[in-house]
Each structure stands twice: as C-alpha cells, then as structure tokens.
Amino acid sequence: xxxxxxxxxxxxxxxWMALTGLFLCLFLAGHLAGNLQLLVPNxxxxxxxxxxxxxxxxxxxxxxxxxxxxxxxxAIDGFLLTYQNAKARxxxxxxxxxSANSSFSSRNMAVLGTIVLIFIVTHMVNFWAKMxxxxxxxxxxKETLAQTGKKQIQLVGIKDSQMPFFQLDESGKLSKEFFExxxxxxQGQYDLEIQDVTKIVNKKDGEVIxxxxxxLYKLTIDFFRDAKYGLIFTIGYVLAMFALGFHLxxxxxxxxxSLGLNGPKYTPAIKFFGKAFSVVVPLxxxxxxxxxxxxx
Amino acid sequence: xxxxxxxxxxxxxxRQKNAKEKGGIVDYKxxxxxxxxxxxxxxxxxxxxLINSKQEPVAFDHDCREGICGMCSLYINGRAHGxxxxxxxxxxxxxxxxxxxxxxxxxxxxxxxxxVKDLVVDRSSFDRIQQAGGFVSVxxxxxxxxxNSIPVPKDDADKSFMAAACIGCGACVASCKNGSAMLFVGxxxxxxxxxPQGKVEAATRVQNMxxxxxxxxxxxxxxxxxxxxECPKGISLENIARMNREFLKASL
Lengths: 296, 252
Known about the structure:
heterodimer, A: mainly alpha, 3 helical TM bundles of succinate and fumarate reductases, 3-stranded antiparallel sheet, elongated, B: alpha+beta, Ubiquitin-like (UB roll), Fumarate Reductase Iron-sulfur Protein, Chain B, domain 2, 9 helices, 7 strands
C-alpha cells in the first residue's frame, strides 16, 4: 500500500506539489541572477558567455532537465487537483464569502498557475527554442577598425585570437563567396562550412577553425525593443510576473506546510521569507524588460 | 438582555424533500425575531410559523445547543456556522443580524456529505474515517492500567487535547473550497499520535484514516487555511502539518 499511497493519496500529491514547487523557486532565483546581467550596460559578451555556459555545461543540463520535469509534474498535478477538488463539491453554494477566511492567492492558485504556465510556454518559444534550435540564430558580433581605417563588423569568437579571420558582409553574414574565396586562396587546404550554427569547421580534417556565440543578448534586446510588438511583449511579461508573485505569495509557505513543517519556531520566518521572495523575485524579473524597452 | 429588540428578516433557505429530489432556495419572511434568541431558536420560530400555515417545517440538525456535540451545521451567509468565528451555529445569536437583513441558509456542501433533507446532511463519512483508525487498541482483560500512570510531557498533552477538541461538525469541509477533510483527519491523527498510548499504532492509523478520507470523496487540501478560520473549536493547521509528517513517516 505504501508505494501506491506515495503517488495517489491526497497527501502524497501535496508532497509532490511542494517539492517541485520549491525546486522551481530555486530555479527562479538562479534564472533571475542570470537575467540581471541584462541590466548591466554593454554586457553582451558576458551575457552570451553565460548563455553558452548554461546551454552546454553538463551539471546545468541535469538541473534544466529536473526543471522541465518539475514544471510538467507541478502543472499536471495541479490540474489533477483542481479537477478532483471540483468533483468533491458537486452542488455549490448560492452565497459564498470566501474572503472572510482565505487569501485571494490561496483560492486562485490554479488560475495563477495556468497564467504562469502559458507564460513559460511562450517564453520558451521566444527564447529557449530559438537558442536551442533556431538555425538563423544571430551570432555575436562587434565593430572593429580595419587596417585601412574603415569600420568593419566581425564575429566574436570564443577564443579571441582566431577572430580577425572572418569579415562579414554588410548584413552581418558570412557569404558563400567568402567560403569560396578562402578555398581558392588556400588552394583547397581550407574547405569551410558552418556546423551547429556557431562553428566554422574545415571539412577536410574536421578542425574547428572558429566558434562564435549565439547572440542571445541581441535577441532579447531586440525582442523587447521591437517597434511593433515590443511594448506588448513587455506588458505581457510584467503581467505574468504579477501572476507569478501572487502564485508564490501562497505557494512558498504552503509548500512547507505540505511537507509537515509548521510550528511556532520556524513558521513565522518561513512566511516572512516567502512573502519577501514573492515580491522581490517577480519585481526584479519585471524590471528587466521594462528597463530594456524604455531605455532605447 | 435589556438591549434586546425585535427585528424582521428575510430568509433564503435551501429546501430539498429528500436525498434523491432536486432542491432549491426558497424565500421566507420572518417578523418579530428577538435579537436575544439564538439562530436555531429563530429557525424554531420559522418552523412554528410554517406549521401554523400547514407547510412542511425546515429540517435542520441540532442537539446539545451549547456548542459541544457537533450536531448543528448550516452554511449561513457564505460561512460555516455563520459570521462569528469560534462558535457553532447554536451559539450564534440573532443580535449579530440587523433589521431587514437577508440571510442565506444552506446545508454543508460536500460530495461526502449528501443532503438527507433540507439542511440536514449525512456526515457518517466522518464516522467511517474515525472507525478506520481513530482509536487506541486496548486489551480489556480486566487489568487495564490507569492511563495517568504513563508520563506524558505537558506540552504534548496540551497539543493533544487541543486537537481532541474537534467535535467533528464538518465546518472545515464545508468552508474549504476543495471540500477537503484534512483538518478533521489531521486533528484525529494528531490527538493520538502525540500521546504514548497512540504512538504504537500511529503508522497504520494515519494510512488507514487517509485512505478512508480519500475513498469518501473529500477533496485535496491546498492550504488555503479557511478551515482553521471557520473551525468552531479553533483546531490549528499545525495538525494538518503533523498528519503530513506522520503520513510521510508511515509511507517511507
């Protein structure tokens, strides 16, 4: 009985909700720390280096898979709870007075959570999916002075020394001609192609000549400064952070209660920290798109 | 009380012939209700008026009328046991209402509390939860030792007694937006788990009681805390946390 009870029973659902929820709180704190780099002016290189680390480091990968699983489990468990709880009272009351005994947040966790889930999906489509799968993801560039004194655009490489090798056309792309020129100039020694969006590889021996950064910084800045939709994206983001804040307002301390931690010793501290967390974290998240959008 | 006066009120009461038939809200006007009367006395007055006009009186549960038996229920103006906290419906008085007030009176709503008639609900699901584990097995061979001969820390005894104050009225279920019975079960689990006599069977008790609670069709707790506010006996959410701990200990 014990095994199935740990999955199906009403109390077990609490544990899973609490554990996944608290793990997602940790994720929020980490994600926020990363995002705050966007508030530092001219921080493209650092931010893109950070983005590369976050998408390639094996330890981070484990954490990110845990995060995906937590989000899915938390959402599925939440929908299940809402469905079952609706069935527990088939005939409702004609007159209710819910604010007399419970907080707005605690009564609307499902709605708030759904808003947050929709936000997460759109957020992942806009940033995560592009970073991982978009073949046209821009590469980090910088403006330098050529020997002739003219300004030119170059790709920023992971190792700086290899950088001057590649000059870009005006649209900032490596043209086909460029690859052909190299091939003829080196008498076929260097037959180059682009692999995995960021790598320029010599087909002959598989040597990685150059590796650039996916320009997540530019993608983010352009997204919130988009002439047409930038304002809508910014407002949407801020509204989602309101939903997140209310969700956390109840969720954070509720998780501890679910795990059986409730006593005069720590509960006041947990509640205080939970409320501070639910205000500070969404607020800082929301400041970022506001800052990007309104400081063109 | 010398300040007592008479008020006229409008009542909106759930009427339902029996468990099978559909019910609905029916409006009544009741004049000259003394503010010194209790809420149940007001209903008695309404029933007298109904009987005198050859109508079916409103069925409602009541017994001790002093807030200890857990028999009275009623969801009054959107709150279990009415607008006061820390009291049962029988301890609620009409001085809490004003002349001309409209008062909604509905039965406690839960899948596990089917309506028997009008405002009377069947709360035997609570009994079945209790029977599933809410007891201490004692050998009654004739040489049962006195319970007081086992030392109990004062703090534990106090907490146990506070949990044992639960009268099983079902206000927690009625006020919970999820129709969850966890405050009731939490109190019953805690009451025994805190005492040395109850610790022996703590693991099977919590598993059996929680399983029965789930089988009865009560909802899942989401920690809104409404039950704690509406509980006439002030049972604390700490009891639900203790049940969560006990259940985890028992399941691992």
